[in-house]
From TrEMBL:
It comes from Mesorhizobium liriopis. Belongs to the drug/metabolite transporter (DMT) superfamily. Small multidrug resistance (SMR) (TC 2.A.7.1) family. Gdx/SugE subfamily. InterPro entries: EmrE-like, Small_drug/metabolite_transptr, Small_multidrug_res. Keywords: Cell membrane, Membrane, Transmembrane, Transmembrane helix, Transport. The chain crosses the membrane at residues 33-50, 57-78, 84-102. This is Guanidinium exporter. The keyword rRNA processing does not apply. It comes from the Bacteria. It is a multi-pass membrane protein.
């Protein structure tokens, strides 16, 4: 259950990062509220996952899902630049996440 909570927490991190971008410096009410609500949900699920997963594992995977997810959303939704170097960086992050997952108890 902790791994599922951690995965959902990571997805919520992507949502709050995207909605923060849309909030335009917290000047738009709806994206600002979405940011705050999804932040709280993400932190709550991360906290739940940390009850049984090691800190380093949980935090690394949570931030990694957020980083790679934000990278994908930036390219697909916001039209950000796609380059070989950026894709390689994302592949390295995912590789690190998989290694962290498979080398951790829980």
């Amino acid at each position: 259950m902790a791994w599922i909570a951690l995965f959902v927490a990571g997805l919520l991190e992507v949502v709050w990062a995207f909605s923060m971008k849309l909030s335009d410096g917290f000047s738009k009410p709806v994206p600002t509220v979405v940011t705050l609500v999804t932040m709280i949900g993400s932190f709550a699920l991360l906290s739940f996952a940390m009850r049984s997963l090691p800190l380093g594992t949980a935090y690394t995977i949570w931030t990694g899902i957020g980083a790679v997810g934000a990278f994908v959303v930036g390219i697909v939704v916001l039209g950000e630049t796609l380059s070989v170097a950026r894709v390689l960086a994302a592949v390295l992050i995912v590789s690190g996440l998989l290694l962290m997952k498979f080398s951790s108890p829980g």
